From TrEMBL:
Residue ranges crossing the lipid bilayer per the database entry: none
Span of domain Prohead serine protease: 19-156
Organism this protein belongs to: Loktanella atrilutea
Annotated protein name in UniProt: Prohead serine protease domain-containing protein
Domain of life, source organism: Bacteria
GO molecular function: peptidase activity
GO BP terms in the entry: proteolysis
Keywords: Hydrolase, Protease, Viral release from host cell
UniProt-listed InterPro entries: Peptidase_S78_dom, Prohead_protease
Length: 180
C-alpha cells in the first residue's frame, strides 16, 4: 500500500486561534494541483464513514512524519468545496508548540493530505481524477502542492454560505486577473 500526499497552499494566512485551534480546507475539489491531479467530489465519503464506524480519526501530523503527531482533528468533513478540517495543535507536545509558533508567525501556512488512492482515472491532460481516497492524515506543511487551497480565517466557518460565496467571487476574480 503506497501512501501519497497532496499539499494545499492557503489563499489567506493560516492562523492559530485560542487554545491553538486551527481550521481550513485540506483539499479542494476539481482543482488541478502541481502534480496534475484533481480530487473529485465525494472522494472522501467512504473513508470518513469507515473511520467513524471504527471509532477512529484522521491524524494531525507535522510534515507527514508519522512519528510526529502534533494535535487532533476534531472535525473532518466534505462539503461542496472540499475537505474541511478543524482541530487543535497540542502545545503540551514540543513539536506542537513549535508548530503553533511557526503558524502564528506565518512561517508555516500549508495543509497536506496523506492518503491511499482507491479509485482514479487518467484525464486528457496527463493527470488523474482521484474519485475515491482512503484518508490517513492531514499535516501542517511548509511547501503545499495545491496553491489555491483555502485555509479559513480566524472566525470563519464553512457553514456560512455568504462567506463561502464571497470567497469564491474573490478567488474567481484573482484567477481571471492571473490569466490576463
Amino acid at each position: 500500500m503506497m501512501l501519497e500526499h497532496k499539499f494545499c497552499q492557503p489563499e489567506t494566512v493560516l492562523t492559530v486561534t485560542e487554545g491553538a485551534g486551527i481550521s481550513g480546507y485540506a483539499s479542494l475539489f476539481d482543482q488541478t494541483d502541481q502534480g496534475g491531479d484533481r480530487v473529485g467530489r465525494g472522494a472522501y465519503v467512504a473513508s470518513l464513514a469507515a473511520l467513524t464506524a471504527k471509532g477512529r480519526a484522521v491524524k494531525m501530523l507535522w510534515q507527514h512524519d508519522p512519528t510526529q503527531p502534533i494535535g487532533v482533528w476534531d472535525e473532518v468533513r466534505e462539503d461542496a468545496r472540499g475537505l474541511w478540517v478543524k482541530g487543535r495543535i497540542l502545545t503540551d507536545v514540543a513539536r506542537g508548540r513549535e508548530a503553533a509558533a511557526l503558524v502564528a508567525a506565518g512561517a508555516i501556512d500549508g495543509l497536506s493530505i496523506g492518503y491511499r488512492t482507491v479509485r482514479a482515472t487518467k484525464d486528457d491532460r496527463g493527470g488523474r481524477l482521484l474519485s475515491e481516497l482512503e484518508l490517513w492524515e492531514v499535516s501542517l506543511v511548509t511547501f503545499p502542492m495545491l496553491p489555491d487551497a483555502r485555509v479559513a480565517a480566524k472566525a470563519e466557518d464553512p457553514g456560512d454560505a455568504a462567506l463561502r460565496d464571497l470567497a469564491a467571487v474573490f478567488t474567481d476574480a484573482r484567477a481571471a486577473l492571473r490569466q490576463g
